[in-house]
Amino acid sequence: MVLLNKEASAKIFQEKNQKHKRNIIDLHRLHVPEAESHFKEAVEAARERRKLSLLVIVGKGIHSNGGIPKIKPTIYALGERLGMIVNVDPRNDGCLVVNFK
């Protein structure tokens, strides 16, 4: 079951992100641990390509229990723990702008 969940997560991530530019990742609708893992991988890949920032689609929590976002605060805190500057996108509060120092 764990393996099937991991495969499903990878497929969802791939389908949601194939249309985005390399400095944009969509974590919307993933489970929190999956989102964290994909975020870390995306940060590493962006740094290897010498990108200065990453736009992270996290959603607004509309589909979460009680309408409370789970991915957004987790990725925000993780980015800060990793030494990045994280801000909510002023054009869309379901997105985070992550700037590398």
UniProtKB/TrEMBL annotation:
Source species taxonomy: Eukaryota, Fungi, Dikarya, Basidiomycota, Agaricomycotina
Domain Smr: 25-101
Protein's recorded name: Smr domain-containing protein
Organism annotation: Rhizopogon vesiculosus
Listed InterPro entries: Smr_dom, Smr_dom_sf, Smr_domain_protein
